[in-house]
Target: Secreted beta-glucosidase sun1
Amino acid sequence: MKYAIVFTILTAGLSLAQPHRHAHRHAHVDKRSPTADVVNVPGPTVVVFELNGKTISESDVQQGLKNGTLKWAGDGAFSVAPSSTVASSTSAPSPIISSAKPTSTSIYVAPTSSTSVAASTSAAASSVAPSSANAAPSAASYSGSSLPDANNVEADFPDGELDCSTFPSDHGAVSVEWMGLGGWTGIQQPGSSGDGGFDDIMTVTSQTCSNGNCCTEGSFCSYACPAGYQKSQWPTKQGATGQSVGGIQCVNGKLRLTNPSLSKKLCMTGTEKVSVQIVNKMSQNAAVCRTDYPGTEGETVPLDAQPGTTSNLTCPDGAHYYNWKGAPTSAQYYVNPKGVSVKDACQWGTAARPWGNFAPLNLGVGYSAGSAWLSIFQNAPTTDAKLDFSIEIVGNHGGYENLSGRCKYENGQYCSGEHYESCSKTTGCTISVSSGSATFIFSS
Model:
């Protein structure tokens, strides 16, 4: 006999007694126990997640728990039948974080040397069984590049002219249809706003959209940009307790820029001081997914590195991009096993497959203090799965002269040193480059 379990998910901060009938929709990740309605049924265990009376997917639950917009209802712990597995949400690691250890996972501070550094995390390790990196992509995977071309990426956005139901694919944004949000990578709805910032921030799920229209009045709607570009829009006012908020906003039924002083375009390039690329020398694609930050912080911004191609990789300039409480931020990319489509890879996954937030490996990329800092590191503690191909950072003309050192992942190890003599299965590596180019070489 097994159990059908319904996990009721409350929006974060909801008072159980609700004496004033004011439901708060956001707080820090405050996991509370789900209330479980247990019914004896034959057959396999079924896990259902419910939000405000509507069923939502496990991936939406994981995203909400990670970014703090959801919490478990109840008193803190939950149990499931032995045959059922529910993966606990973990924060993605950042290769370099400030000594203040903020809760944000994308804070970037340049290291004082180019020696190898261990990947850090703001979350406690989750107990997750190792996954094989050889799992095959789903039958629904796209063949070839599944990303639409960007249109008019260099044109100014028609601020206040497009209806909120219109995704701005003709104005530089790349539609991410598999998220089920009308092309948006993530949508946030602040419940309140004060001098200290937004509070009660709810993450919109595909199941809660009305007739497919997800970017509704007051929402901040985030989007992907083509390779070599990054989102330029986020409001000056951010979360009251450190939550990040990103995207353009639906105001009076029209899409409005939220950061026009930075750019009147939806997408912008990173630093011009250093050029960063990915070269895929394999016979299969490699899905590389950037964290949507500022925003929901899901790994939903896709780059589809096709076989035999070179792709630009955006390197944010810390002095001219999003700052979290005054600290510059870098970009974090999740690298998935070869052959997995961006549709499967660039969204929240499960421990059953090393995709999405369970991808084996991360790249850290950012420009600060006169140099670009590039890292390769394990996606710990989320997974100890190993990537099934090699990655090496090379400099101008395939050499190393303009790099501060060497950094490579191969056969499950992260190696540095002049002859790659210093290797570790757990500790990543970082190099810096002040000019010229740096390339991540993907090879079998």
